Amino acid sequence: MPPINPGSQPPTRPLTAEQAWRATAERAERCVLFFDFDGTLAPVRDDPTTVEPAPKALAAINALTEVVQRVAIVSARPVEFLRDRFAGLDGVDLYGLYGLEHLHASGETITEEAALPFVPTMAELSDRARAELPAGALVEYKRLSVALHYRTAPHLAGEIERWGRTQADRLGLRVQVGRMVLELKPPVDRDKGMVIGEAVRSAGCAWYFGDDVSDIKAFAALRAREAADPDFFGVCVAVANPETGDEVSTAADLTIESPEALGDFLTEAVHRLT
Hints:
Layout: H1 17-25, E1 31-35, H2 55-64, E2 70-74, H3 79-85, E3 92-96, E4 101-103, E5 110-111, H4 119-132, E6 138-141, E7 146-149, H5 157-171, E8 174-178, E9 181-185, H6 192-199, E10 205-210, H7 216-228, E11 233-239, E12 254-256, H8 259-273
Parallel strand pairs: 1-2, 1-10, 2-3, 10-11, 11-12
Antiparallel strand pairs: 3-4, 4-5, 6-7, 7-9, 8-9
Protein name: Trehalose 6-phosphate phosphatase
Pathway: Glycan biosynthesis; trehalose biosynthesis
Cofactor: Mg(2+)
């Protein structure tokens, strides 16, 4: 039987995990692996401050940094939060707040200059949210954005979203909808798709693992890179959850059941690529 993917030509869709890892192994030294954090590497919790990456996924990522060209976390969390969670790993780049902040494996955190004038705005907005929103709403202040969570009080979703959109209009902010959260952020053109599009310009291969609607832009960036370069190989992986339904999974090539299952998948990847 001939090989599934003779030579270095990327396999066609639909794609199996076996085909994807085989094509990736041919490009490992030019491959970048991108991971969302919440809901992808870590289970979503009622209290976002208590979230930690799944241990098996963390161990596999540590091993994969020695195999591929680059590993990066691309998250809505601030870089400071991510740095604490991945402190034991070398060679992992961190993109926080949808790319408004970034920290490469060695160096200082860089903030998008256009977002800096909004730091006082976000502090004021955070205080106002805590004073005006009903009990049950969880306000997460991130310096450059404010997230309004209603996971523990889903009956407040409409009230919280109306309040948030009113504040966005008042302050000239942008709204990012997520899994039982509405986030207000500066009107700066920066999102996960832009981060990925820039980061893969010189890559020969990239994977993106995500679980939420904001990750669909990252998937689209890999599709665009493939369309521009037939030799580039991109894989979009959705981590399933009931809150986004099939919106994310239908945009992906592969679907993983949970962050814990992703740990198993990445452990297998280490063996496949070495």
